[in-house]
Amino acid sequence: MAVSQSKRVPLMGAAERLILQTEIVEDPWNYGNLPKTHVKFSFRQDVGFLVELQCYETGMRAVNQEPDSPVYEDSCMECFLNFYPEESDRYLNFEVNSCGTMLCQVGTGRTDRTFIRDMGMEQPTVEVEKTEDDWKICYRIPCTLIAQIYGHSDFRIGHKLRGNFYKCGDLTPHIHYGCWNRIEAPTPNYHLPQFFGELVI
Length: 201
Description:
By secondary structure, this protein is mostly beta strands. It has one helix spanning about 145-150, and strands spanning about 15-25, 35-45, 50-55, 75-80, 90-95, 100-105, 115, 125-130, 135-140, 160-170, 175-180, 195-200. Helices cover about 5% and strands about 40% of the residues.
């Protein structure tokens, strides 16, 4: 008997399911200077969520090297995700600069943020590849971390997340603010979950 496409079915084995592969092209505040940035976001049941971001950028700034320091001032790529938007307003922000330093928090908005390290949780480990002209970061978000935040991590085919992907550099020589899903706001602000896009496993 065929399974209805609207029904969520269990994930089988360790196959990787591509959720999103795109480029960050939205420049909602018209700063220009937006370097080409690629996004790949996928899921594997035995690993969790995989984030791969690559930016073609010269003159990278990488000053902040302590965990949870203001990496958004540097050449930075970011991923904000709400893994259970139907039951919670909380989302995680993963912000990483070009030397692999991560800032990671959870909360419902810009002023309601808590560092996950202050909650006794470990940040994902970041792998960095870097040349003079580009840099790439990869990290996995394990289901165990998600379960600590939301109380469970029972993902199935068809599950819907919400989130956005960003490229910024507040203090870089060429200030820029880019995003995957369009934001409508008068000044740069990524903590606007109403503009998160839908992401389906």
